[in-house]
Amino acid sequence: MKLFVYHTPELTPTDSVPDCAIAVDVLRATSTIATVLNAGAEAVQVFSDMDQLMQLSEDWPAEKRLRAGERGGAKVEGCDLGNSPLDCTPERVTDCRLFISTTNGTRALQRVQAAPSVLAAALINRQAVVNYLLETNPETVWIVSSGWEGSYSLEDTVCAGAIVDGLLASSSLSPKELAGNDEAIAALALYRHWQDDLLGLMHHASHGQRLLRLNCHEDLKYCAKTDILEVVPRQKEPGVLVK
Ligand SMILES: O=C(O)[C@H](CS(=O)(=O)O)OP(=O)(O)O
Ligand SMILES: [Mg+2]
């Protein structure tokens, strides 16, 4: 297995696809996607464009449909939900399809949707994703950080490092054998430095500070937890993820 880390979707190669692509958006899209599927949602369908989301979801039975829209960290007018994983309770989401569009995470997932295997990872389901990789053993793996509007994000890179660390803990590979690029080694170092204070890292991160200004303290605390869910969101058709 060779694992490559990319800091934003735009940095991924355009002339190849990996055997397995993992989109990471710890704050908050992939934390929300893992949480909503774990809570019993039928599926999550991701959109980079809000108008397309509203149009396409119109054909879905209203009682089985939830629309989640976020722009600038806040809920989009006309949607049922924003992008907080804390709103994804079983009472609210069971058997529903979540149609979601966010600033960064949904774009990352669309960027890699041509890969044979596409997963969504966050800190809350890191070990479940590591176990899935160990079971399926893909030859090439891309971990694609969503970043923020095309720039680097600390929290997504630390999650990439947590996945690398989890793989190393359960395999005989050395970092040099596993890492396909320098970014993978750097992500591992970042995780090993912050693994005991991931919430502290979030408070340093520009994205975390943005959410704190929006009073999303509880979102940060939740998204900073590690390995609390065993769900692995997997793409079953382009843009549609199930557990
Ligand atoms: O909703 C979020 O947390 C972010 C937007 S912002 O950085 O908080 O403004 O969207 P995401 O697509 O989850 O990065
Ligand atoms: Mg984000």
Automatic annotation (TrEMBL):
- Signal peptide region: none
Q: What is its EC number?
A: 3.1.3.71
Q: Which Gene3D superfamilies match?
A: ComB-like
**Top enzyme class of this protein?**
hydrolase
Transmembrane portions of the chain? none
Catalyses:
(2R)-O-phospho-3-sulfolactate + H2O = (2R)-3-sulfolactate + phosphate
Database matches in Pfam families:
2-ph_phosp (PF04029)
The answer to keyword Transferase applying to this record is no
Q: Please indicate which superkingdom the organism of origin belongs to.
A: Bacteria
> Which InterPro entries has this protein been placed in?
ComB-like, ComB-like_sf
Q: Which residues form a coiled coil?
A: none
Sorted keywords for this record are: Hydrolase, Magnesium
**Cofactor(s) recorded in Swiss-Prot or TrEMBL:** Mg(2+)
Recorded family membership? Belongs to the ComB family.
Q: Spell out the protein name for this chain.
A: Probable 2-phosphosulfolactate phosphatase
